[in-house]
Amino acid sequence: MKIVTYNINGIRASLKLGLSEWIKDFDADVYCFQEVRCNETLAKELLFQKSQMSLFDFENDAEPLKAYTPIFNCGNVPGYAGTLTLSKVKPDRVLYDMGELWKDNEGRTTTIFLGDMAVVNAYIPNGNSRLDFKMKYLEALNKFLAELNKSYNVVCVGDYNIAHNEIDLTNPKECKTKSVFLPIERQAFTDLLSVGLIDCFRQLNPNEVKYSWRSYRSRQDTSYNSWKYRIDYILASDSLKDKIVDCDILDLDYSDHLPVVMEIKA
Length: 266
Known about the structure:
By secondary structure, this protein is an alpha+beta fold. The protein has one domain: Endonuclease/exonuclease/phosphatase (Deoxyribonuclease I, Chain A), CATH 3.60.10. It has 8 helices and 14 strands. Helix 4 links the parallel strand 7 (117-123) and strand 8. The protein starts with a strand and ends with a strand.
């Protein structure tokens, strides 16, 4: 089973850059996208309507994403946030937000249930202007994952907007007073792991330096020593540790973020 998490920084821009062709060719079982940045009606049109087929480059396939069940959670804030999940297997159940623990109008959390597995697509808030909001979200997510982990094998993916340790970013000393690397944010991430989860990439690659976000300038100029972070993660129940075949960060150009991919034995 192959699971992808990817902050696409706007579905319109990423599709124009060729994201849809990659989705089809890569053939993952579950795609979890964050920062869709458009309403559900437009997102559906971009992905499925014939009027938008010019965005796709598939000569022999009139329905490029017909293999997937789409779950939209675009929120109600125009051009902002939102999540989208594509699953080859139709979910047994879908949960938006985190039940009574958390509700917002930004489409930040979607959970699909696939048998004994719960896949959580989460877009953790940026803390630059709303640190208190971010910390409250993380507190709710901690409780939510702890409860889920009692009954399901949990996979919680997304843009966490946190670099957990110094290995996960450039310029750690300069970032200690900036949101993304604040002590309270890093502790909140540690607290998520403490409910019985593992950071899948770091579990398999304990010493590897690799980032999931880089500026557009550094994307074009590899010699440019800019800010780079590993802030996109796949967390999984400790019970799944021995089933993880691979977890990696792919170098693609559809966004300022990079996708994280995990392959797990079904």
